[in-house]
Amino acid sequence: MAEPSRVGADASGMLAQQASWSSLNAAAGAGTLRMEPGAAEECAVACEVLGDELAAQAKNLRRVTRLEGLGELDSGRALARKFEMKAFGEMGVSAIEVLQQHMAVLVEMAATFRAAGAAYRAQEQATADGLGGGMRAAVLAVLAVLALGGCVASSVAGSPVTSSGLAPVETINFDRVR
């Protein structure tokens, strides 16, 4: 009977998928996997919606005791019995277990997307912070050039002017620089 081994292979494939998403989630948590936050949230929500749909199907399947509607011929009854055996786990993993495995992967996927979005935001903030420091250095360099060229700067709000004739960097009034 090749059928149960195929079911087992499907289950191991599902475990491999879950492990793969767990690995991606770890990469996102470490900041090496990043995704635009809006797209990441859309993907996470899509995973949750699909997970809810699978949960509803699992709930419906729990109420089923017998599959019908495949006809009254022996072949129809045999097919219905085979589907029942698959659905209720008599041939390996039950349909409910498979749906639960899919739902677990979807939960991992949603978490991964959100972590990737958070990593993107964190990288974006780090870049902005880095540029902020770079901009400060650039302003200081420009002020040094202006000071060497004989420009005069005055202080703002009565702060004293330093001995070089320049106010502290935070209080330069650029309207008075000539």
Q: Could you name the key traits of this structure?
A:
178 residues; mainly alpha; rod-shaped; disordered N terminus
Radius of gyration: 32 Å
Which residue ranges are poorly predicted, with pLDDT under 50 across at least 5 consecutive positions? Answer: 1-9, 150-174
Question: On the 0-100 scale, what is the average pLDDT?
Answer: 75
Q: What shape does the CA trace take?
A: rod-shaped
User: Could you give a short account of the major beta sheet?
Assistant: none
The quaternary structure here is single chain
**How many structural units, i.e. domains?**
1
Question: How many strand units?
Answer: 0
Tell me the series of helices and strands, N- to C-terminal.
HHHH
Head-to-tail CA distance between termini: 92 Å
SS element count, helices: 4
Q: Estimate the strand proportion.
A: under 5%
- Helix residue percentage: 55-70%
Structural category is mainly alpha
